[in-house]
Amino acid sequence: MKISEVKPGEVEIQGWIENLRDKKSMQFIVIRDLSGKIQVTVVKDENPEIAEIFSHATLESTVKIQGKAVANEYVKLNGIEIIPSKVEITSHAEAFPIGPESSIDQRLDYRWLDLRTERNQLLFQFQSTLINAMREFLLNKNFIEIHTPKFIGTASESGAEVFEVKYFDRKAYLAQSPQFYKQMAMAAGFERIFEVAPCFRAEKSHTKKHSTEFTSFDVEFSYINSFQDVMELEAEMITYGLEKTKEKYGDKVKEVFGVDIVVPTLPFPQMKLNDIYDELEKRYGFTVPEEEKTDLTTEAERLCERLAKDKFNHEFLLVTDFPPQKRAFYHMRQNGILQGYDLIWKGIEITSGAQREHRYEELKKNVEEKGLGKDVEFYLQFFKYGCPPHGGFAIGVDRLTMLLLNLPSLKEAEFLFRGPDRLDP
Fold it and tell me: Residues near 108 by Cβ (< 8 Å), separated by ≥ 6?
């Protein structure tokens, strides 16, 4: 609890009224802010005016209190209580329309109240530390943070559905990812960049791992030798982020969420796509038709969690050697094999990364093969005047948080969830 000294011997606190016990001769009030809780004790005979104020106060109202901080070994909240000399109810709270028994969709209708819990506030403190640690890792390696536009002029970045918006006298689209502009930065000689920003996907998916707006942590860097360089950097960044976050919040996350933050060992294990299907059949009797083996099916992806633990005693698994049919045109290919990877964690894909195709003529061939034509003409211009070999990846911040804390869906992991049926609040 934040305590401010207003004058010698007197302090001030502000926060929410979390609990109020109104006894015959005394009142015990628990005040909460983001940093913690503290007890306020009122002796009615000594402070009848303050006792009257609290007798009409409601839970979750906000209050400003001045008084003395006194040590008391019988007080459970850090052995300190506030004896008030002045109290002001700064806002009055009505009875809550939701409670712990409410469904997630009911709670999302009143998300600002749902977020007021210790559990949810810890979630975002934790997430902030994780993202800051990964950002710190990159800054220490001389990466530059950029901010790319979210209005784009073409809808052909990847084949996922896009949101069309009216942009003055023409059509525009909300960016599915900053991919084109990350690569433009490579062509501009920035060499190492990252961005943490929203992305938009107009997909009518109602799964636990999809939303129409999410936060993406994007990384791109130049002068790589192969996509192995990209995988190694991502593994190091994630490991650094989890290590720093565990140092600060590991005990609290264990207490509140019942989750142990596991800091992974390096290097992350990796397997070829075909080898994974062979192992899944041999170990678990799992099979799929041959035509489905061009990518990981949802069930195969889920089984990768078990495979990673059984084969490597690891939570992460890098999957390589995908055919190019279902992948973006800007991924480099070599002998018909995609020079990229998926990173699977706890049975869910959290990253698709790759070495990009930086050679203008080869990129043109890929564009023609996908039938994109004029839609990506502006993008092709980036590579006409020289561009170094480069690659990168993107991680969904919300999906990362969901998996790390074992949350049931992205609805719990995002500050404000957006899905096909959710546009408010």
Answer: 114, 411, 417, 422
Q: Model confidence over 67-79: pLDDT tens digits?
A: 999 999 999 998 9
Q: Cα–Cα distance between 300 and 310 in angstroms, integer?
A: 15
Indicate whether 410 pLDDT > 80.
yes
Place of tokens 């938009």: 200
Paired with 31 in beta bridges are 17, 38
pLDDT tens, position by position, 233-249: 999 999 999 999 999 99
Return the sign of the alpha-carbon dihedral for residues 237, 243, 249, 252: positive
- Asked if 138 and 194 touch (Cβ cutoff 8 Å), the reply is yes
Structure tokens at 33: 């802010």
- Phi-psi label, residue 393: left if phi above 0, alpha if psi -120 to 50, beta otherwise: beta
By C-alpha distance, which of 295, 306, 303, 315 is closest to 235?
Answer: 315
Q: Mind listing the pLDDT tens digit for each residue in 27-52? A: 999 999 999 999 999 999 999 999 99
What structural domains and CATH numbers belong to the chain?
A: 4-91 (2.40.50.140), 108-413 (3.30.930.10)
